[in-house]
Amino acid sequence: EADIYQTPRYLVIGTGKKITLECSQTMGHDKMYWYQQDPGMELHLIHYSYGVNSTEKGDLSSESTVSRIRTEHFPLTLESARPSHTSQYLCASSGTGWWEAFFGQGTRLTVV
Amino acid sequence: QKEVEQNSGPLSVPEGAIASLNCTYSDRGSQSFFWYRQYSGKSPELIMSIYSNGDKEDGRFTAQLNKASQYVSLLIRDSQPSDSATYLCAVNMGNGLSFGAGTTVTVRA
Fold first, then answer.
1. Contact at 8 Å (CB) between A88 and A39?
2. Sign, Cα dihedral of A62, A67, A71, A72
3. CB A109 within 8 A of CB A21
4. pLDDT tens digits for B17-76?
5. Is residue A44 within 8 Å of B90, Cβ to Cβ?
6. Which chain B residue has its CA at the smallest distance from A49's CA?
7. What is the pairing mode between strands B45-50 and B19-25?
8. How far apart are CA B41 and CA B64, in angstroms?
9. How many cross-chain Cβ pairs, A to B, lie less than 8 Å apart?
10. Which of A25, A45, A70, B106 is a plausible cystine mate for A4, CB 3.0–4.6 Å?
């Protein structure tokens, strides 16, 4: 059973606000990822990390930023939310030497 | 060319039948392949992983890999209404998993 948690599950926020989506895992996984998925569409990798102080941008350009100060924590921040950021954000992690990714429950973000 | 392509759906099968899902990938160097199931409104759930050419069976699921053809497939035997979901093919591209667009399967009772 994967133990990866995202908060909040749902967020409705006004344009221009700064938001941080939280993601934590208790499995000691070194690799963590953020994916973005619009309804009925495919997942796109927006950020990944191979360990503490390691972050890289994924295949889909995103205005969000991430940090990895602790192994278990990988928050995603939007400095100024816009309606185009409305989407589902999925956090995932995988262990050393493995590529199976386990997903959190997701955060469904709506910017109005 | 997309990195991971899946056969377009939706796929409708009667209960008890076999559902066959296909996936091709572009990176010949890829070594790890996965199938995820995603119910509507939920996050993806890993159901199968395969690393070597050939078949891998787990319960009613069988994954097949042919690296020479850059092809991965998933068979669902004795399909049940609870198998109705979108199935995502994922391939390790070296910086995380790249996902196909998914194939939606509906099992008719």
1. yes
2. negative
3. yes
4. 999 999 999 988 899 999 999 999 999 999 999 999 999 999 999 999 999 999 999 999
5. no
6. B95
7. unpaired
8. 28
9. 46
10. A25
